Every structure is written in C-alpha cells, then in structure tokens.
Amino acid sequence: MRILPILAALILNGCIAGKAGYYLVETEKAYAEAELAEAESLAVYEYTLATAYRAKAWEEAGYSDYGPAEAYALKATAYAKAAQQIAETGAPARELVEEMKADEAFVPDLVDQPVEEALEAPVWEPPPEEPEEESLDWLLDELEGDKE
Questions:
Q1: How many CB atoms lie within 10 A of CB 137?
Q2: Considering its fold, how many domains does the chain have in total?
Q3: In terms of pTM, does the model score above 0.70?
Q4: How far apart are CA 12 and CA 67, in angstroms?
Q5: What is the pLDDT of residue 7?
Q6: Is residue 122 part of a domain?
C-alpha cells in the first residue's frame, strides 16, 4: 500500500517534463507558422517576443527547470500565434500602402512640404467672441417682490 503514493509521485514528476516537452513542440509549430506568414517583417514586435521566449523556454528545459520552461513556451506560443495573425491580416494593409506609394504623382505638393514650413504657415483663428452681458432684471424683480 505504501508503494502507491510513491509511484504516484514519480509519475507526476515525469508528467511535468512531459508537459513542458509538449508545450515546446507546440511552440515550434506556432513559430514555424509565423515564419511562413513572414511575421519577421510584418509583425516585428510579436515575432521578436516569440523568438526570445522560445529561446528562453529551450534554455530552461535544458537546465531541467520544467515549470519555467512550460511558462516561457506558453508565452512564446501566444506571441507566435499573434505574430502570424498580424502578418496574415496585415498583408492587405501593406498592399494598400504600396498602391498609395505608386500614386504619389497625384498627391499635392503641400504634402511633400517640410514640417518646419508647415508649422510656420499662418493658421486661421476665429474672431474672439464678445461675452454676453448678463441681464439683472430677475434681481430687480426679486427685490421689488420683497418690498411689497
């Protein structure tokens, strides 16, 4: 009967390494999908975080620190999936920007004006409004009502 708790403890300790290994494999899959979506150039922030967390997860697994390895692998997977999603949905926006750059001949010259010149240009300001004079007739009516 005493062997059952010992056996359960040994199995649970082995599962921790197994869970970390599973999450590392999931991280590699998500990272590969992000690379295929060209996330390195389209979702730089998320891809960089995924790369850093992925490297740290493998480092921790190498030191047999399976708890931190699992945590870093989960973060790496989340950022890799986010990078993939941004890269895939950001492609139409990138195409639109490229089309706009092709149409630069139609953009007015004012757009190409340096910022300093644009800031020095006079700015139209509305004329100041004169404050309305408040009528004090209500006060006179009130004072006359007190005298009666």
A1: 8
A2: 1
A3: no
A4: 13
A5: 44
A6: no
